[in-house]
Specification:
- This protein is α/β, with parallel strands linked by helices and 672 residues long.
- Helices cover 31% and strands 21% of the residues.
- The chain contains 17 helices and 25 strands.
- Strands 9, 10, 11, 12, 13, 14, 15, 16, 17, 18 and 19 form an 11-stranded mixed beta sheet that branches. An 8-stranded parallel barrel has the order 1-2-3-4-5-6-7-8, surrounded by 4 helices. A 4-stranded antiparallel beta sheet has the order 20-21-24-25, with helices on one face.
- The chain is globular, with a radius of gyration of 26 Å.
- Bound molecules: alpha-D-galactopyranose (GLA) and zinc ion.
């Protein structure tokens, strides 16, 4: 086994440059200068690889893989299913997706094929196996990049039938489906499986159980398609390693499920750095949540498969990354358990919609271009720190429950606030509160194992499965600390409301019982005051205000206005050998750092032994501590100066952490 190394590179699309051999030569030279050691090759190259049905043109790729290998650049070889050639759409229209309005799309764009179509699967099999036969044993091919950003849904007749079959396997009988979805409502009982149709704007969209199961089916069917792609490759190369690139808070696929079928989890990050409403630290925390989620879906080091070295072209305003921020983003990936930092893309395209999307190499083709110089500096840094960092896992400290079924049900429910519940922001507040206390976070879903965590945070766990409620009970009984919020334990796994006291199965654990929930308009808030000196003395509840009756818990904060003044807003309860906190409303962001400072006392040890200045991020990998300066000015920590946007890496010891690496500043000025 080779020792793991940090991987650095980009999407590489030489199929756009085959008429420019000079460019292909320069590519290799510049890759070496930038310390690139991996590229994702041929993601959208199907039309070049198979210009007509059954006629394969792989020689150009063979030459490129050989040249890359000779230059020390490995290949993450793509299956090209993310975008199909025109001949395929013309000859077999069934591969084209049908939208929810039952209209079949025309040829064009990408990521829009039917995941069920046997024809699409067969054509994908043929091209994948051509690639596997020709390149699967090449020593330069270290990974397979299955398709690209799987997503979306198809409502064609083939998918309708597959949905019905999936329901049959899940429920057995149509009576069981009707019960699970409460179809007596509006007389919507289904006489048989054939009567079931996917949700449609001009059809059914009020049976929430149906909509939830449709989401589950779409996720299942997409993963099934991905497994098909994987197995086509593995039929030829049984030990082929596979990954695919996941997306920022993507709703349509349960990534915990998807990751089980992969060897490596990866994702594509496009944060809007420098937006006027957010500091670098805030943007970094948002990105940090995703890094930790992608780490958690497999519980092992991941790759950042795409990020942008400068401005994108598709955000409402695409800003440049200020000098040093690209390095900052790369180091943050590694600090959170990333073993690969890759960009979209290697070289800026000449035409079509992404021609202004920044790339490692810009249209000027110059190596003294600022973006290239910063990319080269990042490549150097990753090479320098690789040994000792690559492959290092992260320890379990705190877990946030992030569960796709819950998200689907919560966001679809018609309830107290149809203006939106901004579930993501609830999650991010808890995450930021923990991170700012130097606590490492991983995410678990309701199939997850809570072993090893000292703290579990379950924000807005609206859909709560009884088996998971039992896991939470056991976790607290055995000494764990639980934080649960308003709007939890409301429905079961088919979206039927639980009867009896709520949060379901947890009122004795939390020592509170929900009585009502009030919704607030945007801009409205309800003042709360603390009964406990360690918590913020005043904080405003927003969005939803749950009114709970105390059943043994100790109130830490209470509402201070409205008819529910005096009702608990934050409580703690002892249960078994552990304790459980309950937060009845959505507080402003500032509440969560002091709140978690209190929660972790005696429960978890922060990364850094002393308080850190604001805007310094701290995280751990094994016994390594990463401190990152999110400011545009230097910070001084215990005798060490960390340059603007730079990182310092320490080894944890019993006493003072030992400094191992202090990243030099990346400075650049347009003024010579
Ligand atoms: C996505 C895709 C890439 C590219 C980038 C642009 O993440 O996977 O092919 O289009 O966006 O930001
Ligand atoms: Zn379909």
């Amino acid at each position: 086994m080779n020792a793991p190394v940090l991987r650095y590179g980009a999407d590489y699309n030489p199929d756009q440059w085959l008429d420019r051999p000079d460019i292909l030569v320069q590519d290799i030279e510049l890759m070496q200068k930038a310390n690139v050691n991996v590229v994702s090759l041929g993601i959208f190259a199907w039309a070049t690889l198979e210009p007509e049905e059954g006629r394969y043109n792989l020689d150009w790729m063979a030459e490129i893989i050989d040249k890359l290998y000779a230059a020390g650049v490995s290949v993450d070889l793509a299956t090209p299913s993310g975008a199909r050639p025109a001949w395929l759409a013309r000859q077999y229209p069934e591969v084209l997706r049908v939208n929810a309005d039952r209209k079949r799309i025309l040829f064009g764009e990408r990521h829009n094929h039917c995941y069920t179509s046997p024809v699409y699967r067969e054509k994908v099999k043929q091209i994948n196996q051509q690639l596997a036969r020709r390149f699967g044993r090449h020593p330069g091919v270290i990974m397979w990049h299955l398709s690209n950003e799987y997503g979306g849904e198809c409502h064609c007749p083939l998918c309708q039938q597959a949905f019905r079959d999936w329901l049959k396997a899940r429920y057995g009988t149509i009576e069981a489906v009707n019960r699970a979805w409460n179809t007596k409502f509006w007389s919507h009982d289904y006489p048989d499986f054939d009567a079931i149709e996917s949700p449609a704007p001009h059809g059914e969209h009020s049976v929430h159980g149906l909509k939830l199961d449709w989401k589950r089916f779409v996720s299942h069917q997409t993963i099934d398609f991905m497994k098909w792609e994987r197995d086509c490759v593995r039929e030829i190369v049984p030990d082929a390693k596979v990954c695919t690139n996941m997306m920022y808070f993507y709703d349509g696929i349960d990534y915990f499920d998807m990751a089980k079928a992969l060897d490596l989890a990866t994702w594509d990050a496009y944060p809007t750095w420098h937006k006027p409403t957010e500091t670098i630290e805030q943007t970094a925390l948002d990105t940090g949540f995703m890094h930790d989620l992608i780490y958690s879906v497999k519980g092992q080091p991941f790759w950042l498969m795409e990020n942008c070295p400068g401005p994108t072209n598709w955000q409402p305003v695409s800003k440049v990354k200020k000098p040093g921020v690209n390095l900052f983003a790369g180091m943050q990936t590694v600090a959170h358990g990333g073993d690969g930092v890759l960009f979209f893309q290697w070289r800026q395209a000449r035409g079509s919609s992404e021609k202004f999307h920044a790339s490692m190499v810009s249209h000027d083709c110059r190596e003294d271009n600022r973006i290239f110089m910063e990319c080269a500096a990042l490549g150097r840094t990753l090479r320098e720190i690789s040994a000792g960092v690559a492959g290092t896992p992260r320890a379990r400290q705190a877990a946030i429950v992030y569960d796709w079924s819950n998200k689907w049900a919560l966001e679809d429910a018609q309830g107290p606030r149809n203006k939106g519940l901004s579930y993501k922001h609830e999650l991010l507040r808890h995450y930021a509160g923990l991170s700012r206390n130097g606590i490492d976070v991983q995410m678990v879903d309701q199939n997850g194992d809570l072993t090893g965590y000292a703290l579990v945070v379950a924000p807005m766990l609206y859909l709560l499965r009884e088996d998971f409620a039992q896991k939470l009970r056991d976790f607290v009984a055995q000494g764990g600390t639980l934080v649960m919020t308003y709007w939890s334990g409301v429905v079961n796994e088919t979206d039927l409301c639980y009867l009896g006291d709520a949060p379901h199965m947890l009122t004795d654990v939390l020592g509170v019982r929900r009585t009502e929930i009030d919704a607030l308009y945007d801009g409205e808030s309800r003042r709360c005051t603390a009964l406990d000196a360690a918590l913020p003395q005043a904080a405003n509840g927003t969005l939803l205000c749950e009114v709970a009756a105390l059943e043994g818990a100790r109130p830490l904060m209470v509402y201070d206005e409205d008819f529910f003044a005096g009702a608990p807003a934050v409580t703690v309860n002892a249960f078994g050998s552990g304790k459980a906190y309950y937060v009845a409303t959505r507080f402003e962001e500032a509440f969560y750092t002091p709140f978690y400072a209190q929660v972790i006392k005696g429960v978890l040890t922060p990364c850094w032994p002393a308080p850190l200045p604001d805007d310094v991020l701290a995280s751990r990998r094994g016994d390594l501590i990463f401190l990152q300066n999110a400011r545009s000015t230097p910070v001084h920590i215990d005798g060490v100066t960390i340059a603007p946007y730079a990182a310092a890496i320490y080894r944890q010891t019993d006493g003072k952490p030992e400094l191992l690496y202090n990243q030099p500043a990346f400075t650049w000025s347009p003024v010579k």
